[in-house]
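Q: I have 253 residues here and want to know how they pack in 3D. Can you give me a structure?
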Amino acid sequence: MNRAKLLSIIEPSYEKNTSFISKLYDLFMFLMIIISLIPLMYRGASLMFYLFEKISVSAFIIDYFLRWITADIKYPEKKKWVAFVTYPFTMMAIIDLLSILPALGLLHKSLKALRAARVFMLIRIIRLVRYSKRIWTLLYVLKKERVILLTVLGIALFYIFATALIMFNVEMYRQLPDGSLVFESFLDALYWATTTLTTIGYGDIYPVSDAGKIVTIISSLLGVAIIALPTGVITAGYLDELKKRRKEAENKS
């Protein structure tokens, strides 16, 4: 089997109908991912979980190398050697590696939690983007409005940092009823600012001074407005794009 045929199986073209073998391969990899996630849902270990891990990781390794050896065909705009060298640094290749390396014992035990990255492999296997025109439309809207969305993100990050800095200094030496500090570190202040901005407010960290409560009120009110901005932009852009495409379809018919 030549490499072009191999690529059409493991990653078929968006423009062509998906072959039965490709769908079968997708189903097999989907099952491997699900099997690999089962041991991560339990604290204990067993022979069954051990076998699940070895079988699924073997499938992931084979899939990784199949994609690597066909990288030059997938990216024809790049020189052959460039495609091979740069493939390991692509997003999906990095996710694949994070899914494989912990199981091979090549990472410290504390990094075994990276195996949870396997869940992101489902994005490629399920291929929802390729099968759903609505998701393509949403992705187009996100790309079209990326400047506005990035600006809003920048405002949100700045606001989180600013309010965290203010609150940290306002409550720096304040203590809770149990004697512990309101904010043990600036990271706690960032955590508080984020949960307040997103209006979640878990209540595990809260101000005790009047000044801190005033800052919280202001942060909560502004947080509602900041969080609502990207939602409105995406919704408006998505509806406009749907109307545009429907009009084009009507004109063609």
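Q: Anything worth noting?
A: The chain has a mean pLDDT of 80. The longest helix spans residues 210-252.
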